[in-house]
Amino acid sequence: MQFRTLIPILKTNCPIDYNSKIMSLGSCFAVNMAEKLDYFKFQNSCNPFGILFHPLAIEKLINFAVSKKQFTEKDIFFHNERWHCFDVHSDLSNSNKEDLLASLNTLIRSTNQQLAQSTHIIITYGTSWIYRNIESDSIVANCHKVPQKQFKKELLSVEEIEKSVANTIKLIHAVNPNCTIVFTVSPVRHIKDGFVENQVSKSNLISALYSVLNLPPSEMKAVYFPSYEIIMDELRDYRFYTEDMLHPNQVAIDYIWKVFKETTISETAFDVMEEVESIQKSLSHKPFNPNSESHLKFQSKVREKITKLENQYSFMKF
């Protein structure tokens, strides 16, 4: 008897391998997947401008990077003894104005290079809800704990998201026409918006992506990976959530990664992934007697494995 439904997912025509250069952008679920890629020592970078939740925030920063925008004093503001930028995450905020501007402009240059060099870009959308700064009439990526009365909350329509997704693809392919873009919707539930509102938000994202990506992947080099659907329809149980009942727990993340590996990573990489995992587990091993002969031999064998892989793949560092 079958006690759950399995989502059929076709294997990608452009799989990831150890020659691939991957960039992950978007919500905290993008970070979960990037951590897996990092663990297995793929060439991966994640969220240079911090976690971003909605399509317009991601599109805007990709546009900045492609056009090599220079941030100036008019793009930042002072609040709670720190300098912030409404277009980036608060992790980048700084007590020194010049340092913030310098770091933002350095990130623009490095992101431009990463967009041009990436073979795969993974974009995870979290929500359709956005906040508009009433004074400037501009949509922000992060409110930085500025009083809520200074913002107006809005829901992006399916049509607005479609336009943003299409423009994001166009911007990336303008500097890197051969790059494969993998879109996904975060399974994290944004209950602060409301239960019905969260469902509407996710529905708008999924509807827009379905509409834009309905062309054959060979024509667009953009595909959809159903991480949201795997949680909602395949796992479908609160035991796959953390204590807050909103975020997928490690078991769920591991399962989604397993499906991602089977459908999006080349089988030619599997043997190397096993070697990397073996080394990672060995490095986390805590011996009872660090000075014992057996442990010293164990360490020597691990170093041999590391040296072999690092000689084979110069970008790998353990």
From TrEMBL:
Domain of life: Bacteria
Segments passing through the bilayer: none
Species of provenance: Flavobacterium omnivorum
UniProt-recorded Gene Ontology molecular function terms: hydrolase activity, acting on ester bonds
Name of the protein this chain belongs to: GSCFA family protein
Classification via SUPFAM superfamilies: SGNH hydrolase
Domain (GSCFA): residue spans on this chain: 21-260
Pfam families associated with the record: GSCFA (PF08885)
